[in-house]
């Protein structure tokens, strides 16, 4: 048993050393090719490549929070290490993406790799592929290209293999399209149904992209400006639960695809339209009340997706209604419920901290302690002592 523990520890250290060495290589920190080959050999990795190239793999993270994403990526990396193309090297880069260093002749196997991972883990895997290099020391160029290719999932969608060589040039937007915004507002005011709003949003983005794809960061900025400006203009004078809260710009920049953004913008304007129609306000309050009741009953396992199913809405729309009606995001409200229940357990039971964490829906006790201290100002242990339990 002791020997097995030492072997496992050695494996962990070896994996860490391989990751660090490969990170230095793909970031261009290693120039001496002989040192590279020697280093790879010492780490029991293949040092010989013919036209080396780099691919970056990233599981679709739309359904997972940051706390879940990294362990899942590590799990995929470990699985792929045992099944990747012969002679290739699998590692984690410094942004927690999976790197795959391979000889260009094996590029045709990437589709099989993607299919294998999708089937095993039940979620799409995005792959960005750089161009092949003539020398291993230049693989940092292929890495940079793979990263740019991976970003293009914004336009191409998730679950795709995107080659850098196929990327179109991005256009630089000029002035903010105020005329397009006005047309969108006019269409919103004339809309009779949610579908009309979705069509208007689709037309807005089609017009934006008429000359070709826009730099992705610029698209985030344009969208944020559209939503913040629209909220001010369309809800001016509307008393919606005292004040209408600002849309969450941070929610936008975390979205991975243009389709996600368009869906969010459509739901945002549906919510704005509802705020402008008096008969919709009570309906929205009823929906939020039902969702909160569900959260209070099922706080150990509830998620935005399950709550949305309960009230027959999309997660994005429910999230928006929460912000508009309560001033809190769904996650903020759920965290409040969980922490309040944790405080009750700490006061009334002798559960250990990790047991309290599990009881209120946190599988990682360290993460629970961080959240608890952030919200309460004391660690769970200090809080328990302060109330004399």
From TrEMBL:
| Protein name according to UniProt | Helix-turn-helix domain-containing protein
What is a single molecular function from GO for this protein? sequence-specific DNA binding
**The UniProt record lists the keyword DNA-binding:** yes
Q: Which residues form the HTH araC/xylS-type domain?
A: 289-386
Q: Name the InterPro entries for this protein.
A: CdaR_GGDEF, Homeodomain-like_sf, HTH_AraC, Tscrpt_reg_AraC-type_HTH
What is the superkingdom listed in this entry's lineage?
A: Bacteria
Signal sequence range: none
Task: Specify the species.
Answer: Paenibacillus sacheonensis
- One Pfam family matching this protein: HTH_18
**Keywords attached to this entry:** DNA-binding, Transcription, Transcription regulation
């Amino acid at each position: 048993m002791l020997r097995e523990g030492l072997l496992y520890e050695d494996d962990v250290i070896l994996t860490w050393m391989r990751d660090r060495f490969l990170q230095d290589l793909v970031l261009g920190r290693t120039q001496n090719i002989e040192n590279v080959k020697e280093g790879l050999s010492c780490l029991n990795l293949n040092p010989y490549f013919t036209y080396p190239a780099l691919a970056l793999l990233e599981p679709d993270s739309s359904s997972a929070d940051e706390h879940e994403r990294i362990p899942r990526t590590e799990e995929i990396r470990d699985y792929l290490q045992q099944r990747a193309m012969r002679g290739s090297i699998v590692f984690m880069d410094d942004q927690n993406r999976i790197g795959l260093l391979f000889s260009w002749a094996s590029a045709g196997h990437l589709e099989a790799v993607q299919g294998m991972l999708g089937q095993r883990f039940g979620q799409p895997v995005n792959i960005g592929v750089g161009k092949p290099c003539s020398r291993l020391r230049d693989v940092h160029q292929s890495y940079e290209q793979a990263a740019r290719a991976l970003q293009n999932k914004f336009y191409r969608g998730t679950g795709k293999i995107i080659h850098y060589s196929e990327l179109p040039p991005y256009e630089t937007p000029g002035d903010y399209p105020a005329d397009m915004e006005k047309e969108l507002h006019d269409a919103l005011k004339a809309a009779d149904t949610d579908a009309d709003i979705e069509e208007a949003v689709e037309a807005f983005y089609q017009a934006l992209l008429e000359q070709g794809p826009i730099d992705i960061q610029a698209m985030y900025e344009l969208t944020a400006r559209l939503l913040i400006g629209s909220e001010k203009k369309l809800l001016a004078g509307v008393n919606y639960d005292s004040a209408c809260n600002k849309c969450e710009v941070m929610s936008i920049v975390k979205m991975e695809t243009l389709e996600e953004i368009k869906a969010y913008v459509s739901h945002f304007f549906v919510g704005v339209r509802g705020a402008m129609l008096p008969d919709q306000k009570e309906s929205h309050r009823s929906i939020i009340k039902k969702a909160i009741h569900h959260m209070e009953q099922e706080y150990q396992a509830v998620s935005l997706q399950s709550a949305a199913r309960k009230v027959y809405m999309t997660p994005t729309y429910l999230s928006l209604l929460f912000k508009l009606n309560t001033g809190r995001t769904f996650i903020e409200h759920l965290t409040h419920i969980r922490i309040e229940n944790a405080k009750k357990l700490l006061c009334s039971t002798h559960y250990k901290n990790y047991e309290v964490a599990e009881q209120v829906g946190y599988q990682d006790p360290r993460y629970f302690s961080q959240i608890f201290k952030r919200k309460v100002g004391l660690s769970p242990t200090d809080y328990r002592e302060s109330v004399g339990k």
